């Protein structure tokens, strides 16, 4: 499949990028590694008049620990660089694990963290060829009023499958966006709408970088991924868990799911549930049950929905069990 015609722009500074965006007046798409965008363009799911590559902006390539111990990650840092940077960083192990499971090695060499976070939602009824689009009436995501995955639905249920979002969310990461000439930070979980047709609420903002807070004492994290084919597939269910251990008890916990909704799902009321309780297998089973009850995948991607939901429960148990058992080792 060939790409549609477009004008290509490659600014070398944030100021030039901002000027280009103003000049295009909304008629442009930002591209980083292109591993998710280019296939959609080939299928004519999107046909931008202008494509702005941000890969030549050196300011967006850095990853570093700042003086205040926060970690700053530029939007165009390659996924493989994340693997190397976080390999021996125990509090942020979830980031290392997620990055190491993004696609294939070739994908990790090209894909960026910004592109992974801001990748579009997917659906087996949407991510189809032009021939399919010409035959079938348009769904919500293509501007119609039909959802092929959920009968009679008035909104789009296309699923979000960005591996890196869940780990960054449980580790309280923020995204910094350029709005006109202003830089604004947002908690990462707040940039998602929950609507598969329009998954992000950042408007005309351009993602510049991510900020992770200094890890607290006792912080540990992990990420589990369920996919059909190891080494290349998107997650059809994923679980990120971050726990803070204090006095041999779970002092804090945050769990986030991907692959089961149109946005990452942050599990509610989990911290109050575990308050002052002993770390037992029974408690972990109870936490896993809470997570299971808040996971509601629909039939819009590969894999049986009941199996995907069950795997969320199983992976949650395994994740917490591994973190607790390995804490003193």
Give the topology, please.
Blueprint: E1 7-9, H1 14-24, E2 29-31, H2 37-42, E3 50-53, E4 63-65, E5 71-74, H3 79-85, H4 93-100, H5 105-110, H6 113-117, H7 130-135, H8 165-170, E6 174-179, E7 182-187, E8 206-212, E9 219-226, E10 237-246, E11 249-258, E12 265-266, H9 270-274, H10 281-293, H11 305-325
Parallel strand pairs: 1-3, 2-3
Antiparallel strand pairs: 4-5, 5-8, 6-7, 6-8, 9-10, 10-11, 11-12
Helix pairs in contact: 3-4, 10-11
Q: What can you see in these coordinates?
A:
The chain folds into two domains: 56 residues, 2-Layer Sandwich (Uridine Diphospho-n-acetylenolpyruvylglucosamine Reductase, domain 2); 218 residues, 2-Layer Sandwich (Enolase-like, domain 1), CATH 3.30.390.50. It contains eleven helices and twelve strands. Strand 6 and strand 7 form a beta hairpin. Helix 3 runs antiparallel to helix 4 and helix 10 runs antiparallel to helix 11. The mean pLDDT is 92.
């Amino acid at each position: 499949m060939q790409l549609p015609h477009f004008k290509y722009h490659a600014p070398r500074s944030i100021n030039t990028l901002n000027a280009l965006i103003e000049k295009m007046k909304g008629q442009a798409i930002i591209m980083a590694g292109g591993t998710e965008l280019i296939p959609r363009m080939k299928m004519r799911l999107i046909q931008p008049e202008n494509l702005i590559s941000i890969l030549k902006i050196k300011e967006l390539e850095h990853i570093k620990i700042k003086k205040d111990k926060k970690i700053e990650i530029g939007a165009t840092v390659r996924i493989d660089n994340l693997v190397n940077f976080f390999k021996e960083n125990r509090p942020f192990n979830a980031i290392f694990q997620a990055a190491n499971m993004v696609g294939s090695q070739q994908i990790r060499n090209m894909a960026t963290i910004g592109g992974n976070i801001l990748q579009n939602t997917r659906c087996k009824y949407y991510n189809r060829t032009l021939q399919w689009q010409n035959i079938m009436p348009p769904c919500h995501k293509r501007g119609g009023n039909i959802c092929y995955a959920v009968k009679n639905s008035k909104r789009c249920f296309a699923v979000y499958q960005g591996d890196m979002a869940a780990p960054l969310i449980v580790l309280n990461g923020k995204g910094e966006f350029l709005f006109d000439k202003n830089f604004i930070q947002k908690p990462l979980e707040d940039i998602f709408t929950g609507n598969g047709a329009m998954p992000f609420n950042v408007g005309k903002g351009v993602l510049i970088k991510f900020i992770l807070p200094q890890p607290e004492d006792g912080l540990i994290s992990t990420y589990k991924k369920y996919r059909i084919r190891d080494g290349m597939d998107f997650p059809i269910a994923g679980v990120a868990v971050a726990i803070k251990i204090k006095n041999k008890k779970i002092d804090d916990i945050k769990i986030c799911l991907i692959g089961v909704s149109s946005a990452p799902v942050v599990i509610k009321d989990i911290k109050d549930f575990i308050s002052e309780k002993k770390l037992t297998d029974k408690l972990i089973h109870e936490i896993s049950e809470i997570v299971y009850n808040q996971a509601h995948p629909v039939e819009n991607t590969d894999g049986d929905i009941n199996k995907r939901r069950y795997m969320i429960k199983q992976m949650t148990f395994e994740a917490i069990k591994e973190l607790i058992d390995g804490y003193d080792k």
